[in-house]
Amino acid sequence: MMARLKELSNTLKKLDEDEILLFKTWFKRILMARMPEEERKNVEKIFLSGHPLTLFQRQL
């Protein structure tokens, strides 16, 4: 799983800001809609807050 997350992170680092915003919108509407409420809130805090590149600048 960690290898796949690193691969995803490397792919997302290549996106421009508009593409990142599109990805975040897709993520929120498709994936987060199926998550349990508590998990969804935690992901929102980490993934959807702050600058669009914040998540991708962290090391896995």
- As an assembly, this protein is single chain
DSSP, total strands: 0
Structural class category: mainly alpha
Largest sheet: none
Structure description:
This protein has 60 residues and is mainly alpha-helical. The chain has one domain (2-57). It is built from four helices and no strands. It has helices at 2-13, 17-31, 37-47, 54-57. The mean pLDDT is 77.
Write the layout of secondary structure elements.
Layout: H1 2-13, H2 17-31, H3 37-47, H4 54-57
Record keyword descriptors for this entry.
60 residues, mainly alpha, 4 helices, globular
Kindly summarize this structure in a few lines:
By secondary structure, the chain is an all-alpha fold.
